[in-house]
Design a protein that fits this description.
alpha/beta, TIM Barrel, nine-stranded mixed sheet, 6 helices, 9 strands, globular
Length: 206
C-alpha cells in the first residue's frame, strides 16, 4: 500500500481549496483545506460521501498540493477527508511545517496518525472507535450529535482525552433543527463542553 502512495509523495486528492474554517476551536480562521479520498467509517449522516471511494480520486503529487497551499496568505493547512489517516502523511506534514505552515488534521481516530501536527481534531465514531493513543494526544474532541444518545458517547470519550483537550458538541447538519436545542440545554448544564456549529454552511462557503 505504501508503495502505491510513494511514502506519501502521492495522495488521493478529492479537492484542495482556500476558505474559512467553519467548525470547532479554529472557527472563523482562514485556512487551506486538503481533502483526501477514501473512508470506510461509514457514517450514515456523512455530508462528504463523495469522498468514500478512494479509487474515484486521482493520486496527485504531494509537492503540487504543498505548492498550492503556499500560494495563499493564511499559513495554516487543514487535512481532512474522507479519513486522512488511511495514508502515510509524514511527507506532507513535514514539508508543510518546514515551509512555516501550521498543520491541522481532522480524523475519526480509527487508524494510527502519521506525521507531525500542530492541532489534532478528533471526531470519534461509535461504529469504529478511536485508538487509545489518539485520544490522549487530541487537542480537540468534536462529537457529532444526531440524537440524545450521542451525548453518552461524547462523555465516554471525554473521560479518555487529556485535561487540556477542548470539548465540542456539534449538531448534525441534516438534523440541526431537531437537535440544536438538546445540545444547547446540555452545554448549559455541562459547561465543560462548548458548541461547534458548521458556520461555513450558514455562510454558504466551502
Amino acid at each position: 500500500m505504501d508503495d502505491l502512495f510513494k511514502g506519501g509523495r502521492k495522495l488521493p486528492l478529492v479537492e484542495d481549496f482556500y476558505t474559512i474554517q467553519g467548525e470547532g476551536f479554529h472557527t472563523g480562521k482562514a485556512a487551506y483545506f486538503i481533502r483526501l479520498g477514501g473512508c470506510d467509517i461509514g457514517c450514515c449522516w456523512c455530508d462528504a460521501k463523495f469522498t468514500w471511494n478512494r479509487h474515484m480520486h486521482p493520486l496527485v503529487n504531494t509537492d503540487e498540493i504543498i505548492n498550492r497551499a503556499l500560494s495563499f496568505p493564511a499559513m495554516s493547512v487543514v487535512v481532512t477527508g474522507g479519513e486522512p489517516t488511511s495514508y502515510p502523511l509524514g511527507y506532507l506534514s513535514r514539508n508543510l511545517r518546514d515551509k512555516g505552515l501550521k498543520t491541522f488534521i481532522e480524523t475519526s481516530g480509527a487508524y494510527p496518525i502519521t506525521g507531525e501536527w500542530d492541532w489534532i481534531c478528533l471526531s470519534p465514531k461509535k461504529q469504529n472507535p478511536p485508538l487509545p493513543d489518539i485520544l490522549t494526544i487530541a487537542n480537540e474532541l468534536k462529537v457529532i450529535v444526531s440524537d440524545s444518545t450521542d451525548l453518552a458517547w461524547a462523555e465516554e470519550n471525554a473521560l479518555k482525552v487529556s485535561k487540556d483537550c477542548m470539548l465540542y458538541l456539534q449538531p448534525e447538519w441534516s438534523r440541526y433543527q431537531k437537535v440544536v436545542s438538546v445540545v444547547i440545554e446540555y452545554v448549559k448544564k455541562n459547561p465543560v463542553w462548548q458548541i461547534s456549529l458548521q458556520a461555513h454552511k450558514f455562510m454558504r462557503i466551502p
